[in-house]
């Protein structure tokens, strides 16, 4: 091991996207390997707005594996971290860095420890699949640092053991997580259906819903559903397989009507299974219901789905519009019914790619206040509004998979080996 | 027809209970005959607190059928009213009232018109199955007036054509609505499982939840579910049949644990099917969810179901306790988390049989304010309360079926033939 003793530090830094399922994953057939009861399909979101960035550093001076998430040290003792670390270490190969005079042999990796620093460019607690981006990024970055030769599919199978939905964050665009058949999980992998440029008109708007409720973790929630819901098995065995085929077809044909119908129906069915669980799990709240009703009234008025909605294990709405034009009509509706609380500026209430807002002619909180009720509103003079029930909106789009970042974007100091 | 011309008026008056399903009816296989996709089981509620009272009057001076509901004339042109009227008229027999010198022959009924006055002793709009009590009472009273000899089962089949769940209000205690097989609906009838004295420790507390939302009618809601939910058929064909058997067993054995588990699971599954409908139907709101969480936390703390909850096509919670003692513990919890709004008296907030409240030591709004958090509360110093989210509570119990009332309780004037 050349260059050791003194304490060289070698790092790799990468950024990985989060993703939102349009055909939902709910229920494991194997808790340890994280093998699902059905296939799922997701769309990867633009990492510019929602992503995890992770640096993994290795140095002979490190005496144990350590990790910092958003600046705070967290325990790596959990089985999920250990599984990912072990699986990547087993596949580690020789690494040579001539510039730094470092040569790590394959067999050295078992003795070397790593420091991991990760941060999300969005609130971790907001229920926006931070663990999917985080584990995808951890596995991708570890694999880069350790010169692992496995392809995305093999890495996805490792990321899956950190957090099921993380496997889908190894690719951009639309991604299918194939449930697989093998007992060891080797064929439970993510595959890219189409990349992010294939259907690039899509616009994604996330409504982060205010909530004081503590939510059931998805891990314990889906465990309860598997044990107690009498509908879950029927969904997994009978309904999802045909929906997966229809969804692949809708994506291939960029058929937005079909895509939206399937996305909404599957989100609702996932929440139906949660409700069918003992004790019942409520992830959506009254605000979530009102967002759905806003979309459904609009689509009914127009006679066809205008936008798709989907909700994960929390009250936040993820809305997908077929174009910037429709997204701008959606934003007008959302801001009409869910305006910012009094004395709140539009900046901060609408983040991400806010250019659509400009196109919609909404430049300030005053513009929001003068928005007319949408044409589908029944009682236009008396439309109920819900200021303060949404914390903020994120405007984004489908995005690409993990990318390696340059050394100057490292989150770990190249000399001390500690988070910057 | 003796005594006619001048304008005699003959009346019959009866009172019928409402009922709440513990295994739910959701979905028709025949819209006109109102034939369900599955059996259901309900408990009849005490008519002292929740019932419809109906007078039907007949007179040769009436020139058409007319009806008044809660003092306001309503149209009888709907198919459901017409079906009930036609079915009973077809079974009408000779009626003789010597005292008044009236003799109506079987064949006269086709030419005679009726005036119907009905009122509910609870708010019609509160979503408390007023149509079940109303149609049961209409059919029962018409049958009495017209001297119909058919038994309760046959009458239930007629009431069913007014409102499906009305058939279950023809009996007290626990009642099963057998879905039947016949195409003409003749075997889709209600049967009494046990009468109201069989399991007479049960206490029922209804939380009438404040809501500004306009709800989907159950008629259109279940039609949408039948057409669009991919879970409804599985529920109706696979899950409900076994639950019906288990529920009959639980009732027969007065096994409250099993009764509560089945009741809660079936309520939640009915709402899951609503959520699985396109567009999704939300009957429960955040307050409904909080009532459920209150019960579930308590039951989990005690290690066994303490009370059962069930929700119909609206946000109101119907809670069933195994005894007055447990009901009093339930009331303490409900009043702790859902106190009356400030400056509200306890009278009016707690109606029906309020004696349990006295037993619980709660005599005033001040007593409510000083209730301690229940032992299962995690953060006792910081428990979240929701004043104003419940309009009022009704304390009641299982009750008896329809009864004929005396002439002095008639809602129609014996001379004018008009509502009093």
Oligomeric description of these chains: homodimer
Could you tell me the number of beta strands of chain A? 19
Specify the CATH class of the largest domain in chain A. Alpha Beta
The end-to-end span of chain A amounts to 26 Å
| Biggest interface pair, counts | A-B, 30 and 30 residues
Tell me, rounded to a whole number, the average pLDDT of chain A: 94
SSE topology string of chain A: EEEEEEEEHEEEHHEEEHHHHEEHEHHEE
Apparent shape of chain A = globular
CATH homologous superfamily of the largest domain in chain A - what is it?
GHMP kinase, C-terminal domain
> What structural class do the secondary elements of chain A suggest?
alpha+beta
| Percent strand of chain A | 15-25%
Q: How helix-rich are the residues of chain A, as a percent range?
A: 25-40%
**How many strands, which pairing sense, and closed or not: the largest β-sheet of chain A?**
6 strands, mixed
The CATH architecture classification of the largest domain in chain A is 2-Layer Sandwich
Q: How many helices of chain A does DSSP assign?
A: 10
Please state how the strands of the largest beta sheet of chain A are arranged side by side: 8-7-11-6-1-19
Give the low-confidence spans of chain A: 1-5
**Which radius of gyration of chain A do the C-alpha atoms yield?**
22 Å
Number of domains of chain A: 2
Q: The CATH topology of the largest domain in chain A, please?
A: Alpha-Beta Plaits
EC number (chains A, B): 4.1.1.33
Domain Mvd1 C-terminal (chains A, B): 204-404
Catalytic activity (chains A, B): (R)-5-diphosphomevalonate + ATP = isopentenyl diphosphate + ADP + phosphate + CO2
Protein name (chains A, B): Diphosphomevalonate decarboxylase
């Amino acid at each position: 091991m050349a260059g050791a003793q003194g304490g060289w530090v070698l790092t790799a830094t990468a950024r990985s996207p989060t993703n939102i399922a349009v055909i939902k994953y709910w229920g494991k057939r194997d808790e340890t390997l994280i093998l699902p009861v059905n296939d799922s399909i997701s769309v990867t979101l633009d990492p510019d707005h929602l992503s995890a960035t992770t640096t993994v550093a290795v140095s002979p001076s490190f005496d144990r594996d350590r990790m910092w998430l958003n600046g705070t040290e967290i325990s790596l003792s959990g089985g999920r971290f250990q599984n990912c670390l072990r699986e990547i270490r087993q596949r580690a190969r020789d690494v040579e860095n001539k510039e730094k005079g470092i040569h790590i042999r394959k067999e050295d990796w078992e003795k070397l420890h790593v420091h991991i620093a990760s941060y999300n460019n969005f609130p971790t607690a907001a229920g926006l699949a931070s663990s999917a981006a985080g584990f995808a990024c951890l596995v991708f970055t570890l694999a880069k640092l350790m010169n692992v030769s496995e392809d995305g599919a093999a890495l996805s199978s490792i990321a899956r053991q950190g957090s099921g939905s993380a496997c889908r964050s190894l690719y951009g665009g639309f991604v299918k997580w194939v449930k697989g058949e093998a007992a060891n999980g080797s064929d439970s992998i993510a595959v890219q259906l189409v990349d992010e440029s294939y259907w690039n008109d899509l616009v994604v708007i996330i409504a982060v819903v205010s909530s004081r409720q503590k939510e059931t973790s998805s891990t314990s929630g889906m465990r309860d559903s598997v044990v107690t819901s009498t509908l879950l098995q029927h969904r997994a065995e009978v309904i999802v397989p045909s929906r997966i085929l229809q969804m692949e077809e809708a994506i291939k044909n960029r058929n937005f009507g079909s895509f939206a119908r399937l996305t909404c129906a599957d989100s609702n069915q996932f929440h139906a299974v949660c409700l069918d669980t003992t004790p019942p799990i409520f992830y959506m709240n009254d605000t979530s219901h009102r967002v759905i009703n806003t979309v459904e009234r609009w689509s009914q008025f127009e006679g066809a789905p205008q936008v798709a909605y989907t909700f994960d294990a929390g009250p936040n709405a993820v809305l997908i519009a077929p174009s910037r034009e429709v997204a701008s009509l959606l934003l007008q509706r959302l801001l009409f019914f869910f305006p910012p609380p009094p004395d709140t500026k539009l900046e901060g209430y609408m983040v991400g790619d806010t250019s659509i807002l400009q196109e919609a002619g909404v430049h300030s909180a005053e513009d929001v206040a003068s928005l007319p009720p949408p044409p589908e509103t029944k009682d236009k003079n008396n439309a109920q509004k819900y200021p303060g029930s949404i914390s903020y909106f994120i405007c984004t789009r489908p995005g690409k998979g993990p990318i390696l970042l340059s050394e100057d974007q490292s989150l770990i100091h190249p000399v001390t080996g500690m988070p910057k």
